[in-house]
Every structure is written in structure tokens, then in C-alpha cells.
Amino acid sequence: MDYFVNKKGYYGKFGGAYIPEMLYPNVKELEENYLKIMESEAFKNEFASLLKNYVGRPSPLYYSERLSGKYGVKLYLKREDLNHTGSHKINNTIGQILMARFLGKKRIIAETGAGQHGVATATVCAREGVECVVFMGATDVARQKPNVEKMEMLGATVIPVESGNKTLKDATNDAIRHWISHPDETHYIIGSVVGPHPYPDMVARFQSVISKEMRSQLNKQTGSPLPDKIIACVGGGSNAAGAFYHYLNENKVELIAVEADGLGLETGHTAATTAAGTPGIIHGSMTLLMQTGDGQIIEPYSISAGLDYPGIGPLHAHLFDVNRAGFYRATDQEALDAAFELTRLEGIIPALESAHALAALPKIKFGKGEVVVVNISGRGDKDMEAYRKHLLAEKRMKFKKERFKYLFWKFIK
Amino acid sequence: MNRITELFNKKKRNVLSFYFTAGHPEPDSTLSILKSLEKNGADMVEIGMPFSDPLADGPVIQQSSQIALKNGMTIKKLLAALESVREEVTIPLLCMGYFNTVLQFGMENFCKTISQIGIDGVILPDLPLEVYSEKYQAIFERYGIIPVFLITPGTSDERIRQTEKYSKGFIYMVSSASVTGAKKGFGNEQLAYFKRIKEMNLSVPVMAGFGISDKFTFNQVSDYAAGGIIGSAFVSHLQKEGASENSIGEFIKRIVK
Ligand SMILES: Cc1ncc(COP(=O)(O)O)c(C=O)c1O
Q: Fewest Cβ atoms nearer than 10 Å: which of A52, B60, B61, B236?
């Protein structure tokens, strides 16, 4: 079984490039050149050097003693949260800004959900000295304020998107529409392993540095490059693709993808695409997506803006289809609890997205002493608003308990 | 013979076509809009099948699609509403929309049903030529449905020739690098592109679309192409002035007068 993209741009029955003709020249140009460029010495050297000196790679593989104790395994955290700009997203934007330069493009557009990809794009554009326009759903602009401010400080123009549900899907629509209207000189830096071929493959390759490092780090720390299980959250699926990439053909390594379940599958307010979705086309790719029987795309829901997407990348649809990866779900509440657990056990505040990966831990059956890697895709600075609310709720609960105790003892006396 | 082919055999210039979104402005306005268009001189009509995420459309058609979906429009309902359209409308009709909705309906089922109704062609901008030829050409041909493909200012001559090979009724020449939406006029760059296409002497007629909004822009494209397709401007008009026969007549008069 081969899990990588074929010559025509498909992973099994998923993938392809279902794009209007207006996008064909740009997508074709990218398809014809991306591998050549990525494999050139000039590109490879500059990419490696920037990942090391600018992003701060390799990101540590940290042995979490206390989580290990709790779950009876050897649990490692892959610390993508320690990257420059706070998430794995920069691995991709560094790669794509170089790609844009090698293609001779002078202007960058991007979509963003949580704002992490927007910040990572604005960052590399500032460094490269090129114009950057970021499309962001108006709902997300409101719930991820600090990232909007960062993008603006970095010199990017943030365009709030008012169409649809005003979240990631709509931001992606408008970024694509803008690309249709500005085909010359503009490169679209897509933020995940989604979109028309060759984007899913290109982004997966840029993110694959995560599993490349994991292999050598595990080898040093455990004596084998192979863990038993790798766990990552999936919005579009780029951090998971990166964490799985160099293990795809290692069939004894169990790959676990965790999707955002919002308020729970049965409520309909979910973003768990493999559970709630069917095959169809979104943003130029044949994949699994949440849609009505009539083929209208359904608005997803998750507390995490980065996972609030009605599709998944075609690679993941394929891994699901052929059972190469296990798919779990975590609700808003489970993710919040997991974020607090990691914070209090290890002093690491994870992004809400990454917290979904952690939230799968209690749901998975582990063999004793198994080696498990959880990909911590980002840090939680941008999520403090959601965490503050959780903290308040926690305080209120504590107060109620104390008061109950007090009244109880008073009554007894 | 397919009505589209017949039309272009008879009429080589100033072919006037319209696009509107089914289910907009009213849930059940489709049939009466078609009748009014024919009565007032339209040569051909593209019936839009609304989609939640119309990637190639500007704000006007995005909004009409949202309204149509709110009005409950689906392919099933549209085809039911069109069941006896051929008793009242004789001009060529096409269905236009995004591939996903047709994919969910089933391509074979779709082509079969529309051919029974008497729809002549289909335009699915995000169904690429390659996928069409590999997977769907046989179905289209079995039911005598004409596929219409888009070319744009960025399409290479080589690809235009390839598109020509698969085209039967007409080729849809997208006027400029943009999503749908009304324009005030076409500049030198666009006119040079129209001229380039005209000089390619394609074996199928070319219809210009995107940005054609009035008499002036229609005449501009008609100098180079067989005619033009008016979409957003017509949809805005329906939104503002309603879909009565009078309102539609007024709109067309302003273009052909
Ligand atoms: C920290 C973090 N993790 C995960 C994601 C989800 O994206 P993907 O599934 O492509 O990794 C995001 C997206 O914004 C993110 O910011």
C-alpha cells in the first residue's frame, strides 16, 4: 500500500484539482515546478538553514514524566509550540515563501482560521519584503484578536470576510476568489494539506520535518526511531501530516488523528469530518466533507478556530478510508480539560487545537510501557480568552463547594 | 439536433444569453423567468443551480445563491419545476453550477433527467477538462447533453485547442481575470484578448461572459464573439426590481434597443 500522492494528484480516490479554469495556469505552474524547486540544492539549503536559525528547529521531543505516569506509557511531546510564531504553521510558510520567490511571485495571499497561519505567513512576508494580504472570517477576527494585531504589526493587510459563516471555510473561498482576480505575480500560501493538487502534497512535505526529527530524537532517547503510537489533531491536517509523514509506510506505528467534536456529534455542532462527512469536493479537492444530501457544505462548529473546517485534507481522507489511521473525536469541554491538565502537570499551555490531541489520551487503549508521541502543534497564548472563561468557571465551582461545606457544617452543629 | 447547435447555426452574431440563479428571488420564479426571457428576445438561458460555496462568483451571485438556498432550492426541486418547461419555452437551456452538487445528485442520473426534460447543455466551471474526458464524456454523449468549458485570459493557446476538441455547442470565454460581477466596460487588454481568440478561428462559436452588464459591454464583446452572457447585472436587476414579465422586459430592452 502506498500512502503518498500519485502522479495525477490522488491519494486513492481522494485529491485531484477540481478548480475553475481561471485558476488553472497558476495551479499548473505550481504543479510542474514544485518538486523540481524543492529538490534543488539552493532551495534545500536555504530551507534547512531558515528552519534551524529562524524557526529554531529542531523542536524538542520532551519526555513527559507526569503524563507518562498517568497513562502508564512513555509519553513524549513534540514541541511545535516552541517554534517561532508559536506553531507548526511556520514550517509550511517558510517553504512556501521560498517557493514563491523561486517562481518569481511578488505578492502573497493567505487564509487563516485561528490566525496562526496568518501570523506565520505575515512573518515570512515581512522577512522577504513582499506584500501580504490575509483573509480571515469576521467571526475569527473577533475571537482571535491578538493574532490580528500581530499580523497588522507585521505589515500584513487583514481582510475580514463577511460571507457565509465568517470562518475558515469562507476565508478560504475569498482567498481563492482573490487569486482568480489577481492571477499574475500572486502566490497563494494555503495553510494546510487541503486545496487542489499539488498543495496537499507540497504542504505535507514542508511539514514532514516534524516526523523526520522525531525519528532521530526517538532513536536517541528510546533506542528506536519507531514509537508505538503518534497522536495529532486534524483541522485540515497539516500538523498531523507532518507528524505521520515518515511513518506512513511503517505499518507497526499506529497513527491517531483527533478531530474537533464541538458540542458532540449528536448535537450537529461538530467539526468531526470523518464522522459527519461524506465524499465530495471542497476547495478544489475530492475529499471527505460535511455536507447535506444535496451537496451543500455544512458550517462546522468547534471552540477551536483552527479546527473549525468542514473538510480534511485528501491524504487523511485516504488514511481513514483504508484504515491506516485511527480517527478519534474530542469535544470543546474535553479539549479545555486536557489543556488545563497539561498546563498543571507540565507547565505547558497548549493551543486549543493541540489540546484536542491530548484529549484523546483517556480514550485510547494503551499497552503498558508503549512509546507514544503527542504532537503539540502550537502554544496557547492566542487562546487565553477561552482559557480565562474556563478558569472563571473553575473558580465559581470551587466557591460553590466551599460555601456548601460551610453551610453543611453549620447545619450539623 | 441539439437546440444549442441549432441556435448557432442560425445566428452567428449578437446572440443574447442570460444567467440567473434558480430559487431567486422567489422559490418558484424559475419557470416564469424563463418564459419572460424568451418572450422578450433572449436567445439562450443558463439556469444557475445554487451552491453554498460558489468559488468563481462575486458578491451578487453569492448572495442570490444564499437566498435561493434559504428558499429551499435544490437540484431535485429545480428539475421538478422544469418538468414541463418544453411545453412553454423553446430556446436552448443550460444548467450551470458547481460540480459537487451534481456529483451528489449523481452525474448519470442528472444527465438522464435533464435530457428527458429537454435541457440542452451543462456548465460546471470546477469540473476540469481532464476529469470530464476521463469519467463523464460517455455519459454526456449518451444523453446528448452538450458540455460547455471555460477559457480565460490566462488559458494558453494549446489548452484552448484542447478545449475546442471537447466542446460542441460553444466555448465560454471568461472576459477577464475575475470572478463574476458587472463591469462598466472592457479595456484594451481585454479587447486584445477577445481579438486573439477571434483570430484563432475556433471551430465552435465563442460566447463571452463575466462582466457584461449593459448595451455597451454587450456590443463590445459582440464585435469579437458570437454574443454575450449577462449574469450578475440581470441577477441584481431581479433582486431590485423583481421578476415580473414587465421588469424583465424593461431590462432586456435596455440592451437590445
Ligand atoms: C496550533 C494549531 N494546531 C493545529 C491547527 C490545525 O491545522 P492542521 O490540521 O492543518 O494542522 C491549527 C490551525 O490553525 C493551529 O493553529
A: A52
